[in-house]
Every structure is written in C-alpha cells, then in structure tokens.
Amino acid sequence: MTRSTAFPAEWNEIRSAEDYEYVPLRLPPDVTRVTASMRLAIEAEFGGWEISRVRLYTDGSRKVLLRRKRTRTSPDTAPAQVHR
Length: 84
Fold this sequence. Notes:
The protein is α+β, with helices and mostly antiparallel strands. Helices cover 26% and strands 27% of the residues. The chain contains two helices and three strands; from the N terminus they run αβαββ. It has helices spanning 9-15, 33-47; strands at residues 20-27, 50-56, 62-69. The protein has a three-stranded antiparallel sheet, covered by helices on one side. A hairpin with a 5-residue loop joins β2 and β3. The longest helix is centred in the middle third of the chain and has 15 residues, at 33-47.
C-alpha cells in the first residue's frame, strides 16, 4: 500500500484565501505531543503563526497547517529576505 505525503485536498481550498498566508508542516511519529506543542508554541510566539488545522494519523505522524495574517506593505517597504 502506498501512502501519499501530500496534504489533505480540502486544505488547498483553505490555503487559497488572500487574507492569510499558510505553511504546511509534517511532524513525524517520533515527535511526542509535548514536543510538538512546544515547537508550535515557538512558531506562534516568534513568527506570528497560529494553528489552522491539525490531522493526527494512525502511524503517529501529524500534519499541521499554520496561518498568519498577511501584512499590507508596499514593495518598497517590504523587509529584505534573509537566507538561512
């Protein structure tokens, strides 16, 4: 049996909203609930993200959709991109 690594189809409809920007994350089965909670809390605190959707699968993995409001900045006032 082949498992798809794609995110749920209905999430694509959600991600097309223009008021928010979305980031899908996949958390592997070896990540505990406490660790997942801490990782997501850090993203929320420092990145301005909030949880939009979470799916827990029978193998223990989680697929999370984070969102945050889009900022209304003009191109000349946009921050420079930082390469990691």
